[in-house]
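User: I'm writing a tutorial on reading structure tokens. Could you give me a worked example: one chain, its sequence, then its tokens, then a sentence or two explaining what the tokens reveal?
Assistant: Sure. Here is the example chain.
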Amino acid sequence: MGRGKLTPQDFEDMKVISSNIQRLLSESGMKQSQLASVLNIPKSSLNEYVKGRTLPKAGNIQKIADYFGLQKSDIDPRFSKRSGSSVLEKITYTARQLDSKRQQKLLDFGQQQLTEQRQVTGLAAQKRLADQQRPNDTGGTEYQEIVDKFIADEIKHHDTIRLDNIKKVKDLYQALGHSYEPVVLYGEVSAGTGIWVGHEKQETINYPAPIPKHDIALKVNGNSMEPLFYNGEVIFVKKTQEIYHGQFIVAIVNNEAYLKKLYKQDHEIRLISLNPHYDDIILQEDDDIEIIGTVIT
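And here are its predicted structure tokens:
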């Protein structure tokens, strides 16, 4: 690929490849030079790919896809043409048979999955970069900054309060609200080394309103999921039979309960920690696992 006389279709493919690589760089916060160095691709070659001037070699597309946990066809449309689009055709065929309300639900779900994929892809790529740049355990600062930025981006989507309306602290209390509602805690869940769920008696506490709809509430024990979930924080869990890559879940593994992020990489399924000082849990085929539910964020 990438040699000989280019066809009009080749030029179209180069535009798509350029757009996809630019998007991956933007979502991961990486520079071209960093990616080129990590993947051992000449910087000049990667620059040509990004600018849409050259068709990448198949081997280089594979390197980029492997690094971001994607398929080659997710980056280079030439591979989509070879492998066919049977799944997309089935999705389209199914969608056409649905009524308008169900079509909207299908679209909403697809957009949700795309958002989660972009978040996970970007965060995972940045974690690899931070791990590679980390000379020792003191290198956690880089990854901490990455997670802080990730959380900051998430907060942008939440409701905000205009600061020019806040004159005194009491105004802030009024704006945020200070009413409380009772919440029943069903024990603790570990954000560290694992503990039992429900060892303690159920406890009723007052929690700032409004409280999200949930099935159970648990208290976080440990700091492996900081800065998103802190030690002692109350989390709300929705029981479900379906979980997806990239979700925060509460699961019992070999009789110990964990709060972790579900992540699938190649042939491994991991329960990952946001705090770089904690190792991920790699699930083995003979492990006993029970999914309690997903965390409502």
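What the tokens reveal: The first helix runs from residue 8 to 28. The longest strand covers residues 180-190.
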